[in-house]
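Question (not urgent): is this output format expected?
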Amino acid sequence: MKSLLIGTTAIILTTATPALAQDTGTVVADAEQAAQEAAEDAETLALAEAALDLYWPKGNTEAAVDFMLGPWADRMLDSPIRDLAEPFRPVIALYVNEMGPLMEALASLEDDFPGDNEDSAEADGEEADGNEELEAVQELFGDPEDIDAGIDLMLALYGDLTIRGLISDEDEHFDERLSILRDVMDKELPAVLEEFEEPVRAGLVQVFADRFTKAELAQIAAFADTPAGEKFAANIFTVGIEPEYFAGIMASFPGMIKKAPPLVEALEERMAHLPPMFPEPEASEAEEAYEACAQIEDEAERETCQTEAQAAMEDEWQPTPEELDEWAAEYQAMADDYRQQAKDRRAELAAEAAPE
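Got this back:
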């Protein structure tokens, strides 16, 4: 009996050993692969952080704020008002000449997006006037010729003055106030900006790692380390507030606004067979209570009723901690899925680029 037990045990061990060895080998291989992937991810993140320095160098937020409070602010304050105001002339004319038709086109979408304006018009028994929006804009701003004449008059009176000069005429302590503001910002702002910058940079590092391959990140980082790259990084935050850039944006508005009404009309025509994208939601109890408050004749009682109903409506929109956790989990799952897709795509690109 003892011999039989020993023999049976030996047979079991003999047949099980290859499987055990195979399982152990698989575990080791999986661990090695996981370690290799972790190392590659770490290398990718390091390259992404180096590449990020081209777009958002560490500490550049503070440098940008210093620039805006210092040289840029001084240039704006000390430039002739004529130079600052001229880019707005076509914008004002734009509102008078083009915003009316645009508003009219947007108003035509009220059938798809019903709102308070439609309800009030029906309540008053009024019909929409095709030129109502244009007339309202022109009534607000005046005729284009009058506007040009008004701008010319203002520039003739104040065009050669500066903003600093105008403010200083009203406040003799303006320069001292500005100096105090800059001093406080220099001392207190860095800590505030650091709290803002660190998590934003961390998120952007992950985005860079997802969007670019390791080879691309290495090229970006290499440029960031050159004198031209350093100069580019130092200026990227402030180019958007330069007058020339702003003037270019202003100059593009008239053409964009002119093309907007036909675009809205085309969308409306193509979507005419579809139900509204955002149907009018059913009113909540708090909203119904707020509407009912309008029927109260006593003004004090009506205001009290509306205040209480408004507070109830705000409470309805406050998410619970559980809802916040659920939203956070959903966004985290979306981010994880996106990162996995980016990782898979990088692997596909690497496989396609590998020599056969």
